[in-house]
From TrEMBL:
It holds the Pfam family PPR_2. Signal peptide: none annotated. It comes from Zooxanthella nutricula. NCBIfam families: PPR (TIGR00756). PROSITE patterns: PPR. This is Uncharacterized protein.
Amino acid sequence: GQADVVMCNATISACERGAQWTFALVLLDQVRRVFLQATVVTWNAAISACEKGQQWAKALDLLREVPRRRLRPNVVSYNAAAAACERARRWSEAMDLLRGLSA
């Protein structure tokens, strides 16, 4: 239920702080496999974990996946993905995100 999703969100956030992006993605996959309804907070934590792990392409993949899950990316989603691009010096991709926000 909801408590399980909250616990997963906290665990994925802990992975982010510990730069354990691969484990964060495993947890995100587990949430989906056990049919828990991941929230935008869940996805944001996973995107942030990718940013900390310098996985800009994976962060962008996750951001693109959010609407496919019938969720709406928010400013935190875009900020985390943009930070991943910035960390990797992927300025063009960061600008594409900014253009997407203003469209």
